[in-house]
Design brief:
Structural class: alpha/beta
Number of helices: 9
Radius of gyration: 18 Å
Strand content: 5-15%
Largest sheet: 5 strands, parallel
Shape: globular
Amino acid sequence: MENKIIISIGRQFGAGGRRVGQALAKRLDIPYYDKELILEAAKEYGFAPEIFEQNDEKSASFSGNVLQWMESLVTGGMGAKNYLSQDALFEMQASAIRKIAEEKSCVIVGRCSDYVLRDNPNCVSVFLHSTDEDRAQRIQERSHLTYEEAIVKMRTQDKKRAAYYNFYSNKTWGESSTYDLSLNVSAIGVEKCVDIILYFIENKVSKV
């Protein structure tokens, strides 16, 4: 690619975000970052990757964080320390995202990367969603769960992702106006999603 481009992918749990992201990276011959961002952040700051994994795309609700912080003031407990350390972990990962985006074209999945790179003109943000049936099937296949268990996991993970994104970005996770492009993977499939994203990028880059 002549122009550096960073593709940030937000996604519902089980919507096929990993498959689309990997297909994009392969088509463009650029690096793909998902869990790899955890390793990058851990390496940069000298922490064990497990510390980041435990907090990966997880955030308590705003009220929960505030209550935890207030309780720590009264009881002298560890609430405030845990709350601040969670913010610190987010900032460390955000720093790793910015560093990667400065160095190379890449595909980044999740982790508020679209918000972290909101001032980067080379960043294109995409949100991927699918039908509940398709998502549950993907989750069943990769996690060996029953359909009912897959639905429960799907709902739980979506809530966690939404809480994390909304808390740190002050925007609305999954809302189409939050992103440059929103696509239904169930309706058009992985390869067509890749085609549309690439077409969008070509037109956006030409106007920058």
